[in-house]
Amino acid sequence: MKGLNPADFVKGLAGIMTGKPMKLPDSLKDNPVLRLLFSRRSIRKFKEREIPDGIFDVILEAGRLAPSTVNLQTWTFGVFDRKQWKETFNQMIPFKGVRAVVVMADIHRDYTVLADFPRKPLVEYTLSTVNASIASFAMNMAAESLGIGSVMLSETGKSGFYDAVYLKDKMKLPGGVFPLMTIVFGYPAEKAMAMPPRLPLSEISFRKGTYKAPDPKVMDAWLKQMMAGYRAMFVIQSFKDKLNHYLAKVDEAEKGLRKTVFHVKESFRKKIR
Ligand SMILES: Cc1cc2nc3c(=O)[nH]c(=O)nc-3n(C[C@H](O)[C@H](O)[C@H](O)COP(=O)(O)O)c2cc1C
Predict the structure, then answer these.
(1) pLDDT surpasses 70 at 17
(2) What does the alpha-carbon distance between residue 187 and residue 85 come to, in Å, rounded to a whole number?
(3) Strands 75-81 and 177-186, how do they pair?
(4) Residue boundaries of the structural domains of the chain
(5) What does CATH list as the number for 39-190+265-272?
(6) Would you say the C-alpha torsion 136, 139, 142, 146 has a positive or negative sign?
(7) Hey, which of 80, 142, 154, 192 has its CA 20 to 30 A from 168?
(8) Structure confidence at residue 191 (pLDDT)
(9) 62 CA to centre of ligand 1 in angstroms
(10) Residues with C-beta less than 6 Å from any ligand 1 atom
């Protein structure tokens, strides 16, 4: 990845500042769901203020009611307040959030009653991950509707990147349970900054039945906006540094995931049937 010259920096920032969600037609502009979807942003700075149990339960309920493949509900939520998080991971909730949910894809539970489940690791992993991700977004949006900010993190209690083995060990997860992400919640202590650049709909969709090749110009403009955004926000850390941070952990993450996704042995399945 090339560096960012001053002209690209200015152009990139201008792109970010002008990149807004589409303007809703007048007939829809008071639609509360669309307004939430269009204004939602990841929050990374939270107030000390606690989220009352009753309110947090509503957020979890939104996850519980999420749609899933054949209604299999292939998820488990590891629910933490600050104290439990500290006791489990020996550190604060990331970004000083007040609550956190580690969302897991979970095929283990269904095996206890469904002996004939596909028993194909990639099918199981994909299916349970898709469903658990949808439940995650439901919780994220429920929080948003209650004025509670959140951020989904692939970083976890270890502050790594998909620390599957570490999390399995810490939370004593059985085979067939895959930690996917941590959602951190709290009342926002920051006003969301400009929206991180989104690719245009014309780039991410096709309407003529077959895949449309990526447009290098569009992708290059997006990359420059990402780089400019990082430079403006963090000054010391570039987007490249951030990517390198992940790249340094990618081998370990891959090994851990392979171990957890492919390890479910036939003997284990027989045992829980
Ligand atoms: C599955 C998932 C994992 C993410 N992991 C991280 C993370 O580890 N650290 C972080 O700061 N943000 C993380 N994010 C937040 C994204 O950076 C953010 O959604 C993206 O930049 C778009 O910004 P927005 O959510 O404010 O619209 C993650 C988001 C998702 C959906």
Answers:
(1) yes
(2) 18
(3) unpaired
(4) 39-190+265-272
(5) 3.40.109.10
(6) negative
(7) 142
(8) 86
(9) 20
(10) 41-42, 151-155, 181, 195-196
